[in-house]
Write the structure tokens for this entry.
Amino acid sequence: MATSSEEMQKDKTFRRYEDGDYVEDNMHEKIFQASWSYRCPTYIQRTPPCQGSCPAGEDIRGWLDIVRGIEKPADDMAMQEYAFRRLTDANPFPSMMGRVCPAPCEEACNRNHLDDFVGINSVEQYIGDTAIENDFSYEAGTSTGKKVAVIGGGPAGMSAAYQLRRMGHAVTVFEERAELGGMMRYGIPGYRIPREKLAAEIDRITDMGVEVKTSTRVGKDISVDQLEKDFDAVLWAMGCWTGRGLPVDGWEAASNCVDGLSFLEAFNNGRMKVTGKKLVCIGGGDTSIDVVSVARRIGFNADAGLPENILNNNETQDQSLADAASPCDATLTSLFTRDKMMAAEHEIADAIEEGVTIFDGVMPLEVILGDDGRATGLKVCDCTMDGMTPVPTEGTERVIEADIIVAAIGQGGDMAGVEDFANERNLINADKNYQVVDKPGHFVAGDIVRPHLLTTAIGQASVAAESINSYVMAEKMARRPKVDKHHFSLSAKLVEAGLEPDNYDRKSST
């Protein structure tokens, strides 16, 4: 039955919008442009909000249409593989991102105005897991004879390696740690990122012919000068592994005040089996949620000694301590109220369900020290936020007891040995094409530009790879759009179906 005019005016659908909800602007996106009329935009008026909100630049609407059966693959290809190919044009880690991405695409989804967002993360995880189960692989492009060094084997470095191999460039990844994966391996707990699936997605990239040199630090084991001699371009993607401490009295003096990255790395590499009896973490983002959730899961054991010894002395605890562990008290404090915390809402809810106590709208004032110089608690007070500046509320001061305090309030780069590339924040300056400023042949992507989301690092790596390709092939770097647009290409569809026309002379003979 047709929808009545009255019903259409009363209830919005994905086909009907009230006045003012949607404004056309045909000057920005046209159906036809010059001689490439066969490249009609799939999305006529605006880039889909899910895609426009994806830092990785995925064609989300495109691969969702494939899953829904709207766009069909060639007869010899399954829907799952076709969706995988479309998704991984931008992101080679669908299984990982489907699990841990905070999904700004879902927040932007048009369906939020009607009922609820499309479960984009869940579909992405399904596509990624199916690809692993069916052993889908990538193909490298025809060799260009050009060589690129990638410094760092995390999400940015491996994504760039993937894109560069697709372009035909030889790639060598230099990774300081023993294994590839970066924050996905050492910063995020295994219960969020299954290690076997991470390994599968990394192996799929290295199987393209990527050379890997682990336990190798640039600036120590190999010099920048040597890289410049051996490679046509260098991409810096080593991430940020130096956690920030609390800027309050008592923090620097206490040995049991540690940063969140060190805490999580000790857990993820198997050295830390238990922690303190009363842990307090200051943050509000995903790292802080991981810290308190890990603490609740591993618990404490009085026979383990001081909890900070594992972190400060590079010790390894025995598994027997974990087998006899008791629950610990884990408390998270955040300057922002819960609705404005940076962590994903479902991650916050999961932490509370696991027994984590959250004090939101609270600012740290001082680390309380005992006679032995160790922290015994964190003095806090309620606060309101004036932009990004906390304003304390008088008369609300109190002390939260703790035998280990963890700061998860940000991170910086470790530029030892490559100080010439560091800016005043110990990061690397990049231009709009992710070239290192005043360093020809050097490019940068990921957290070392600005610590942000994993999906942001993947998107930056893709742009950097395009810039590197232009540089090594001596081509002019094209001006990039603010948002990547994905177009329907008739010629590409003909190639997919094996129906591409033969080459022919466009000039008619007389």
In short: The chain has 18 helices and 16 strands. The CA atoms of residues 229 and 392 lie 55 Å apart.
